[in-house]
Amino acid sequence: MSPLSPPATAAPAERIQALEDQVRRLTRTNQVLMRRVEHEIDSQGNAFAMFQTAILLEAQVKQRTHDLERVLEDLSRSNRELDAARRAADAASRAKSDFLATMSHEIRTPLNGVLGLANLLAETILDEQQRGFVDHIRGCGDALLALINDILDFSKIEAGRMELESIVYSPAELARSVTDLFRARCRAKQLDLTVELADDLPAAARGDPGRIRQILINLIGNALKFTERGAITVRVTRHRAGDAPALHMAVTDTGIGIAPEARAQLFREFTQADSSTTRRYGGTGLGLAICKRLSELMGGEISVSSDLGEGSTFSFTVRAEEAAVVREPAGPAHRHDVSLTGPVRILVVEDNAVNQMVARRMLQKVGAAVEVASNGLEAVESVSARPFQLVLMDCQMPEMDGFEATRAIRRLPGDAGRVPVVALTANAISGDEARCRAAGMDDYITKPISKSDLMRVLARWLPAKRVARSGGPPALGAEDGAASAA
User: Fold this and answer.
1) What's the count of helices (H) and strands (E) in the chain, helices before strands?
2) 370 and 357 in contact (C-beta within 8 Å)?
3) Three-class SS of residue 273?
């Protein structure tokens, strides 16, 4: 008998009551057991669901890992391709720079002979027709030189290697000196050329007068080119670029004007207003693009307003902090012309026969005794054998180039090793001057050599007692900066 069963001797009612109590207890036990079973089932079900979810997540992780590996592989391949493209671009840039350097040197070398001989010929007795021929030769040479300089400037700007000066100059004197360059040509075309200067212009400003001069020369030159009658006016006023002080310069002409649809092309590289302009007036379309880049580098901008057939006004701004007026004492370096009063022996180191002749004649005209060496070895031997007051050193020569020759001269004992050496070179790419100075050279001028450059070198490096000065002082702080853009 079950321990829960009622005794057999119990009364029927008691037995029924006991059985009912037993049923209730069994029911409660069953309910408890059922809840446990349900709980276990739920737990197992959740675990299964979690297991299924984990499997799904693992599959997704594997897929995403695979996708990531594929992306990383593509990225690595792209990086390799970009690196190869960068190396190719660097090689192309070096090749372009080497090409420009070579072309500049090879063009400047004969151009030095052309312009040098033309200038020497212009100082001789000529009849009217002969002088006209010489003027045309010089004009063509100057145009070719301007083209070379434009290409080099554009290359330097594109490469981010354009360096600006920060020197004191007179805005008024700069504007007048640039305008004076065009007076004879304007008279020849019967054009009026005027300069209007604001009363409140600063007496002196700090900036890069050489590059400002370059922009003005380009704008006035274009105005002269495209104007057959009327006038050209240059205006200079005080301006502000944001919170910074600036100058505003404008060149107005009464020339052919520019159509509205052509203005958008003006400041783009290698473009002009239309093809007929190029055919009639010439030009590469680089000048205005360089003016735009230069004005932007100097914290300003350039713009144009024009009506077809009514003329044009080109305006540009440059930042220009007002500076104290500082006039350096007048001396040889601040004069337009010099002549030699004492014995001066100058060594010209140059392998090109025509350029030897040009340099010798230009120096002899101011009273120098000139010797010539055709390469670096001869130069070192000459400096070792006898004293010179100045050495003009070409850079690219056979046997020994100018850099190595200068280093060898600097190793000589006594005064011979301290003789001033000036690079007289057709190398005009950015970095060439630094290379010359690193070799021990004292100064640097590029071919084609101008009389003003030569006079500046003589005045700067020859003993003052052997230099006679003539001419007046140049515009405040403007000579060196202006010469760099001529």
Assistant:
1) 14, 15
2) no
3) coil
